[in-house]
Each structure stands twice: as structure tokens, then as C-alpha cells.
Input
Amino acid sequence: MAADVLVIGAGVAGMKASLLLASSGRRVHLIENSSVIGGRLIRCEDIFPAMECATCMVSPMQQDVLRNDLINVVTLADILSIEGSIGDFRVRIRKQASCVDPVACIGCAECWNACPVEINNEFEENLSKRKAISVPCAGALPNVPWIDREHCLRWNGDENCSLCAEACVFAAVDYTEVDSEFEITVSDIILSTGYQPSPGDMIDKFQWGICTGVFTASEFERYYSSNGPTSGELITKDGRKPESAAIIVHAFGTGSHSSINTMYSLKFLHYLNEKLPDIRPIVFLDAEYEPVALEDRNHQKWLAAEADVVLCTQIPEVHTVGDSNNLSITCTTAEGSFQAEADLLVLGTSMQPSSGTSKFIKLLGIECSNDGFAAKPEPGLSSVITSVPGIYAAGCSGGPLDIASSVTEAAAAVGRVLSDTNRGGN
Ligand code: SF4
Ligand code: SF4
Output
């Protein structure tokens, strides 16, 4: 049998690559840092531009991955070292103990209902709370909780707490499980560690944290989602129904991939139109990138029909007006200055390399592009090749992509792995 393959990151590209490799008879180790598979897509309700149901697309794929005997899914995992070269990479992996037996657990929620510890839920952009034993959201797969030992009372001064174990009639909670390490040998590596949204520290200048109606793109995704903190109700963070709304498409600059970033931000206009049909939103668009946003005539018509579009020659400035619930948004345009008020503001994001992408670019010794993604030395020939033979970058690890292109790149990476095998690379 041909050698195993390592896929790092269980987002849509990593899952697709794993399934294709398995269908070719290759054994795959799919390594995921978090407790669930599905990547950023599982945080979304819909996929732009067709606004298809994200869960309907990703859930069957997650289940196929979890059921496939040739795919060894390792969640809560970290890669400690990678040595060797194409055909013989030796990879050392640490698996964090979940303290829950995935075979015995049925995901009934009794354990986290019993847990007294409440902490911010990072998966929900800290907009809701989670327990020290939890799954990130309803419908997460695998639907098996894990104990966060950083916050669990047993590891923080109250070793007698056993409320979750007492609540579990299936005896699935196991406090004695410890972290483990193991080594695998693989012929090739597919890096599918994805992106993370900006904005970092810059959100403060848009009154984020002061006005309860200011949302980052990631926050807004969760507020819109039916399994999110408000079950899909679009309200401000203090529970008010908005009366006016705006989107700043290039709030954090345009970056080098403005087309994807623009289209991603415009998805939020769909969200606003659907949930707040009485409001006509204002869309602040970078004038320089108007052709990108409006190159498709259907988008052009849709934008004009659904919103007031302001073409800015600078990133808009945002200030609070009166009480901190209202915002004044000002910018310059070719015709002069423009000002509008809104009590709900969505900040369009730009995609940056995820921490995993940055880490593995360094660990694997592959070259990176100016914007920090895995560099593609031969973009015209095959966009998945990196500077190191046997290591391929699929999906957003090589730069911002939409879902369809990420899936295409996953297939291209698998093609490369199989052709390495045929050439005797492993
Ligand atoms: S660990 Fe037990 S209580 Fe918790 S979800 Fe699993 S089966 Fe239910
Ligand atoms: S041991 Fe106690 S604090 Fe820790 S996860 Fe279980 S119920 Fe929560």
C-alpha cells in the first residue's frame, strides 16, 4: 500500500483533500487543532454569492470524513516537529486529552449543563458563554465535548469537582486521560490551515466596544446564524432592534486580494436585506475597487436596488453621536464630503494568514508571499505547489479564496500527491 499522507487543518479544503485521498486508497492523518472539524465554514449560515446553506454543504462532508476508515482524524492536536523530505516526512504530534471517551459519549449535553464554570465562548466571538466542558456550538462535529483544563475547577484548586462525570449516565467523562504523543511517517503533506479575518487592534477606531451596534464580520456571521448567540435574530449587542444600518466594505484596507474581501463583505447586505427588510443600508465602498465589486452586472443591479452605495476615496471615519448607540460615519468622495448616521455598522474584513498557516510556513521551511501566505512559485502552472517538494498548500493557506476555489485546490493538491507516488516519490 502507498505511504500515508498528512493533511494539516480540517476546514473545507482539508476535508475535501482527505476524502479524495481516501477514495484513492490512501490512508490520511487529518490533524486539527480545535475540537471540531469544518473550519471557518461552520461559523457561517450561508455561502456567498448563491447564499446556499453552509451547513447543508459542510455537514455531509464532515460525516463522510468521520466515518471513513482510511481517515485518521486527530482533533485537539498540535504538530511538534516535522523532519525528512518528500516520500519520508517524519511528523511528531501531541494530542491533548479531551477527558471524554468519544465512543461512549452521545453528545447529550448533560455534562455541560451541570458544569458551574462559565467563560467566554471564543467560537462565538466571545458573544456568549461556554462551560469548562463543552462543544463550541449546536451541531458541531464531532459532537463530543472536551474539558478545557485551563478553566476546569479540578485543575484549578477544586479537585473534588466531579459534577460533569456525575451527570453523565454513559460514564464517558474520564479525568485520568492524559495528553499523548505519537509519530507518523508520511510521503506528502497538504497544508490547509486557512485564514483568519483582520482586524486586530484597528477595530477600536470604528467605535467597536463603545457602540453596541458595531460588529466585525465574524461577529455578524454568528449573530445572523441560526445556531448563533441570538438564534439568528439581528439585534445590537444590548438587544435593540436597529433602525438604520451601514457596511464599510474595506474597513481595514483593501489588501492584495480585494475581490474576495469585497464579495465577502457584500454578503452582509444579503443578511441585512433578509432580516431587516424595512431598512435601506448604506454601503461604503472603496472607489478604487468599484470595478472589482461591480464587475458582475447582476451584482451591480442588486447593489443599486438594495442599498445606497457611497464610493469613498478614504476609509470612512466613525464617531458616536449623542448617546453611544448612534454613529456618525463620514468620508470623502469624488463629489466632496459625505456623512450619514446608523445604529448598526458591519466592518468588512480582509483575510490574513491564520496563526496555523504562519506557524507551518515556518516549521515546514516553505517560502511565504509578501502578505504572509504560503508562496506559490509557479502560480500559472499549479497553484498548490510550494517551495518544498512534497508539501502542497490548498485553500486559504496560499491566499484568500472562495469555497469553490478552495475545493478545486484541494483536488489539485491530491492530484499532485498521487502523481508524486507514480513518479516514485514515496
Ligand atoms: S460526556 Fe456524557 S453527559 Fe456529556 S455529552 Fe457525552 S454522553 Fe452526554
Ligand atoms: S470537573 Fe467541574 S469544573 Fe471541571 S468540567 Fe466538570 S463540572 Fe466543570
About this structure: The first strand starts at residue 5 and ends at 8.
